Amino acid sequence: MEKLHPIMFAGTGSDVGKSIIAAAFCRIFRQDGYHPAPFKAQNMALNSYATPEGLEIGRAQAVQAEAAGVPCHTDMNPLLLKPSSDHTSQVVLNGRPIGNRSAYEYFRVEGREELRHEVCSAFDRLASRYNPIVMEGAGSISEINLRDTDLVNLPMALHAGADVILVGDIDRGGVFASVYGSLMLLRPYERERIKGILINKFRGDIRLFESGVKMLEELCGIPVVGVVPYYKDIYIEEEDSLALATKSVQTEQGKVNIAVVLLRHLSNFTDFNVLERDPRVHLFYTNNVDELAKADIILLPGSKSTLADLHELRRNGVAQAVIRAHREGATVMGICGGYQIMGQEVCDPDHVEGEIERLPGLGLLPVSTHMTGEKITRQIKFRLSAAARENSHLFTDGMQANLEGYEIHMGTTVPVYDAPVSPLNLLEDGGADGYFLDRTCIGTYIHGILDNPSFIDFLLEPFADKIADAGKSFDYHQFKEEQYNKLADHVRSHVDLPLIYKILTTHD
Ligand SMILES: NC(=O)CC[C@H](N)C(=O)O
């Protein structure tokens, strides 16, 4: 295939839809016979993913890699900042944490050149393996006060020799000013790299915007390569928990009601995407104690800051509400940070997470957690333990499919001294995971465990009468493939693709 220049989707601001557009182009290039890969030098998100090598990257690049049909790799997102409070972030470089930095420390010029060297090297490695590289900028391209320390927008595009498409969001208004203003604030040699404008999230009749397109082109001297309508019926994983705001917060009659406890530092909320689409289930997010009381199943999600969130749960009464609901028959399951919260205690003597050194947990599981400096990041295959399967009718033939998931955590959790060893899962490598007390009380470190249809069946098995005539679970992998294709079709039919190919092959 012909070599294409790297293409970068940069924004007039954050949340203009860069990640999704980049995912769409990953799929489009793949459909057209190329071998694309995504790249974003630096990501700030709590939603991360483990690569096949057992290293950590931002979830958005993992999704884009899936759209591109290639395995994800840390070279696709060499720098990941995971905010742990308003002022500090854990810095993950090439998949491994290198410590916590305050925002001030981080943006100081010092040390930046080392990081720049790292992200540029990651890009170069990736560019030697894939064609084209579909790059994503971060936030706005015109944060002029941060220009000299920027690692992810124009300096990266210049290093890569990328053609930049500036994405503007027409839904929030002010698209002319934001596009024109962003361009004007760039230096001339930076502006030269902007080869197209893409208007995203358009609602209404596109014909009414035709004159607007002409005006923008005349004003900016850059072609508008597409006006992409807002879509509602395509499901692609969202980059950050902003999307949570649009989700359900209440119970619904006639389904298994599953409450996900809203934690302030909730991480990996994508753990619940499959359940959310399961016809047997009504999933909602809450920290309202009355709604929790009505749930059949309560899920405690992962948390970047387990101790801080546990403290908050005790303060706002949610901890007590979960304990009460469990006593009255609800199933409680914790994933990662949520699992740690369910135990007897969480200790952080070395201040890995922060100030708090120790807190009692909810006491639902006889385990105790210690935070350690070492971070575990890995993809794993596993199966349910014999104890977990004992009262289940799903695994009677002794055969059990391998389940898949991934781990990202600092804590280690063990049974308290007098408690029996009773893991929920047995790992392929011989290890064990989580704790199985009984069908109503379980914990696991495995993210993505609820992407496995047979695990969902296991979780819902005790509620069989409630869901007797609801539909069956569905194939998530096939669903995701369909969604990437739908997204690609949608974007393809609203951009001038021949023009984009021309841009990506024309020397300048
Ligand atoms: N992903 C998580 O839930 C992490 C839990 C906890 N903060 C840890 O690092 O161990």
| Major sheet: arrangement of strands | 2-9-1-10-11-12
Work out the helicity level.
25-40%
Count of beta strands = 26
Strand pairing plus helix content: what structural class? alpha/beta
What is the count of helical runs? 17
| Percentage of residues in strands | 25-35%
Low-confidence stretches: none
Count of spatially separate domains: 2
Q: Globular, elongated, flat, extended or rod-shaped: what is the shape?
A: globular
Mean pLDDT over the full residue set: 91
Terminal-residue CA separation = 21 Å
CATH superfamily of the largest domain: Class I glutamine amidotransferase (GATase) domain
Radius of gyration: 24 Å
Query: What is the annotated CATH architecture of the largest domain?
Result: 3-Layer(aba) Sandwich
Please tell me about this protein's structure:
With 508 residues, the chain is an alpha/beta fold. It folds into 2 domains: 7-44 and 57-75 and 110-235 and 482-505, P-loop containing nucleotide triphosphate hydrolases (Rossmann fold); 255-469, 3-Layer(aba) Sandwich (Rossmann fold). 30% of the residues lie in helices and 28% in strands. The protein is built from 17 helices and 26 strands. The strands form 6 sheets. It has a 6-stranded parallel β-sheet, sandwiched between helices. A hairpin with a 5-residue loop joins strand 4 (48-50) and strand 5. Helix 1 packs parallel to helix 2 and helix 1 (18-31) packs across helix 16. The longest helix has 18 residues, at 112-129. The structure holds glutamine (GLN). One of its GO terms (biological process) is cobalamin biosynthetic process. This is Cobyric acid synthase. Residues 257-454 form the CobB/CobQ-like glutamine amidotransferase domain. Catalyzes amidations at positions B, D, E, and G on adenosylcobyrinic A,C-diamide. NH(2) groups are provided by glutamine, and one molecule of ATP is hydrogenolyzed for each amidation.
